[in-house]
Write a structure and sequence with these properties.
The structure holds two protein chains of two kinds.
Chain A lengths: L3 H28 L11 H13 L8 H30 L4 H5 L2 H30 L14 H25 L2 H6 L6 H4 L8 H28 L4 H11 L12 H11 L31 H9 L5 H5 L1 H4 L6 H21 L11 H4 L3 H5 L6 H5 L6 H15 L5 H13 L17
Chain B lengths: L1 H5 L6 E4 L1 H6 L1 H16 L4 E2 L10 H5 L3 H17 L4 E4 L2 H10 L8 E4 H10 L14 E4 L13 H8 L4 E2 L30 H10 L5 E4 L2 H13 L7 E4 H7 L1
Parallel strand pairs in B: 1-2, 1-3, 3-4, 5-6, 5-7, 7-8
Helix pairs in contact in B: 3-11, 7-8, 9-10
The chains are: A mainly alpha, B alpha/beta.
């Protein structure tokens, strides 16, 4: 019986981490449904991006207020989590504040003191975040795609953080021994008086409850990530690594098209040539994307990484002028469809059964896709190197090359280029007329 | 260019005029202004003339990769045939396409935007501005997406404008936060989707906030959009929309 708490703790820990790992494996499987991308180039530039953009938050501070608050929560999150290490060791071995025993009092006090200060700063930042979402009504949190679950999701995460920070402070405040040492209780010494009338037994119960709830809360939060928009705290790192290292204006040239064009331009090519006897039956490439499987693995990782902050949408010229297009919605739709496909695979013993749905049409409409000016503002604003534009482009390619479904005026423009080498119906021979006008 | 070839010479630089610069009445004025600058600086340049064809950029942004690559391969054939090394263009869309998307199809050139080239000519002392046409005038520069964000060229157009001794005023959204004029991504050639405002009007409002006398552009499409926006706001008698090439040619 003496080891009961240790056993319960280990079971909780293994179950919590185990379920999380299971879901992450599912996530990786889903991402691998996409087309492979070669990202073996520019290694140093890629690492540089991880350090600057993800670790260094360089793009967060483009918006100073939310950027600064985010840095507070981010630093708090990373540093306070060192405390979790102590909690885990204590939980497994039944020790109490192992750090206090192995570290010099001053160092331990310094660390816990820093955690306490950060906990308060995080609380303040989180309260401001909540106000921005619910009272001040910052415009980018009011878009139509933010109604319902995405709105609650954002708030739930904030509540989690409030509860976790409060539990941490209460745990310290009610730890009589810790308070007596008087080192590191920078904040909790002011909370301790609230519990003055309590008996030592009650205090011990409160302290233990806060301790258990804190670690259980962290495990629940960890597992909540997969079901929420909050995966960016982990995926921002791989996402900035795999993000584009090219100038934003450079769009990929489709290789399958290059092959076709080269063949067309080759005077020696025999259009009636029968395929070689032993030639493998090649599946003709699909041009562009109509569903998540046609996108690249990086685009799917992008979708899971998006935390729905909406900086892209708030900079999008189409969205700013009332069009339906919202780059954030493109990412959310891609993720939701990918999750749907993943669940379909789970339900059908590992194989995807056609469900008569696809990303194009059922989630993202042609109207949204055609409203894009390809201005790259969304790509520029994303703090974690997501490119909604690349998905929009791939879906346009499908519309045009597979379905010939471009708006009529664009068809005219393209016909003109085909016939006379200009988007307008002018003669090729008149190209130099400006010289003499 | 064919004439240069016949004489066995290579020009210093090839001027890629682009479809707008060749056919659009407003853009042709930009083309001519730039030629005036090139002549003033004694630049030995050539154009492809009737051998130039659309870069395919707009087809690519519209999603027609086939048409883009057909155009690109044809143009690369011509450019490589003439042994072209360096290209300058007044159109940021051609600039981006030639610079970033042609290399993958076998067309490798040193491509620069005309504002970069003008700056180069100025720093080399080949082009000097003597007049004071724009001294003290309030000019605001609208960053073209495919020059700015797409290729991080923010300073060259501003450095050139500063040489006119004009007062440069920035819009709230500028450089990497600049708002698109609304023409990119093939929007120039179609009506906008339903919304509550035209993008060029919103961008013109950004510009009007700075109370400019001149809105400077570096792209023929931006020029059209901003000109239309100024007309929509009925400000065309007070504010002119001009390409940097025109400003420098008149300075």
């Amino acid at each position: 019986m003496e080891y009961l708490p240790n056993i319960i703790f280990v079971i909780l820990l293994v179950a919590g981490i185990g379920y999380f790992v299971r879901n992450i494996q599912k996530l990786i499987r889903n991402i691998k449904l996409g087309r492979e991308v070669d990202a073996s180039d520019n290694k140093s530039q890629r690492w540089n991006n991880v350090v600057k953009i993800a670790l260094g938050q360089s793009k967060m501070v483009r918006r100073p207020v939310s950027g600064f608050l985010h840095v507070v929560v981010y630093v708090g999150f990373i540093i306070i989590n060192m405390e979790v290490l102590e909690i885990i060791i204590d939980g497994i071995f039944g020790t109490h504040r192992i750090g206090q025993q192995v570290l010099p009092t001053s160092l331990y006090g310094f660390l816990i003191g820093a955690f306490e200060i950060l906990a308060v700063l995080v609380l303040v930042a989180v309260v401001v975040f909540w106000l921005r979402r619910n009272i001040i009504k910052v415009k980018r949190f009011l878009s139509s795609e933010m109604k319902g679950w995405p709105k609650s999701d954002g708030n739930i995460i904030l509540y989690f953080e409030v509860v976790l920070m409060c539990l941490f402070l209460v745990m310290n405040a009610t730890d009589t021994a810790f308070q007596q040492v008087g080192s590191g209780n920078v904040i909790s010494q002011f909370i301790a008086p609230w519990f003055e009338g309590f008996t030592p037994d009650t205090l011990a119960i409160i302290e233990r409850s806060a301790w258990w709830l804190h670690i259980v809360g962290i495990l629940i939060f960890l597992n909540y990530l997969y079901f929420s928009k909050h995966l960016h705290i982990l995926l921002a790192f791989p996402n900035t690594y795999f993000g584009s290292v090219e100038p934003m204006g450079k769009f990929d040239n489709i290789e399958a098209v290059t092959k076709e064009v080269k063949l067309m331009m080759d005077p020696d090519a025999d259009p009636f040539a029968a395929p070689a006897e032993d030639a493998e039956e090649e599946v003709p490439a699909k041009f562009g994307a109509s569903d998540v499987m046609d996108l690249t693995q990086v685009q799917l990782l992008n979708a899971y990484t998006c935390t729905e902050c909406g900086r892209c949408t708030s900079a999008c010229p189409a969205n700013l002028t009332g069009k339906k297009l919202s780059p954030r919605k493109i990412m959310m739709d891609t993720r939701d469809r990918l999750e749907e496909v993943g669940k379909n695979i789970d339900a059908n013993n590992g194989e995807f059964k056609d469900d008569g749905k696809q990303l194009l049409g059922d989630y993202i409409t042609a109207e949204e896709l055609w409203a894009c000016t390809t201005c790259n503002a969304c790509v520029q604003e994303c703090p974690v190197s997501i490119s909604p534009l690349s998905i929009i482009m791939d879906m346009r390619r499908f519309l045009v090359m597979e379905q010939s479904a471009a708006p009529m005026e664009l068809n005219n423009m393209m016909t003109n280029i085909e016939n006379n080498g200009a988007p307008w119906p002018y003669n090729q021979m008149d190209r130099l007329n400006w010289k003499d006008e | 260019m064919a004439e240069y070839m016949a004489e066995g010479k290579q020009p210093e630089i090839l001027f890629w005029v682009g479809s707008a610069g060749s056919y659009d009445d407003r853009a042709k004025k930009i083309t001519k202004a730039f030629v005036k600058i090139l002549n003033k600086a004694n630049v030995d340049f050539a154009v492809l003339g009737t051998e130039e064809s659309n870069t395919g950029d707009v087809a690519k942004r519209a999603g027609n990769e086939f048409l883009f690559q057909m155009q690109a391969v044809m143009n690369i054939e011509v450019l490589n045939g003439y042994g072209i090394k360096r290209i300058v263009t007044c159109d940021p869309h051609s600039f981006n396409c030639l610079k970033n998307e042609y290399p993958g199809l076998g067309g490798n050139y040193d491509v620069i935007h005309h504002t970069q080239y003008i700056k180069e000519l100025m720093s080399a002392g080949r082009l000097t501005l003597d007049g004071n046409t724009y001294k003290g005038k309030r000019i605001t520069f609208h960053d073209p997406c495919y020059l700015g964000r797409a290729n991080s060229v923010y300073e060259a157009p501003r450095d050139v404008l500063k040489k006119t001794n004009a007062t440069l005023v920035e819009m709230k959204r500028h450089k990497s936060t600049a708002l698109c004029c609304g023409a990119g991504g093939a929007q120039m050639f179609k009506d906008a989707e339903p919304g509550n405002k035209e993008i060029n009007v919103l961008r013109t409002e950004d510009a009007l906030e700075t109370q400019p006398e001149i809105i400077a552009t570096g792209c023929p499409y931006c020029n059209t959009m901003m000109t239309d926006g100024v007309k929509f706001k009925e400000k065309e008698s007070e504010i002119s929309v001009m390409d940097i090439a025109e400003l420098i040619a008149n300075a």
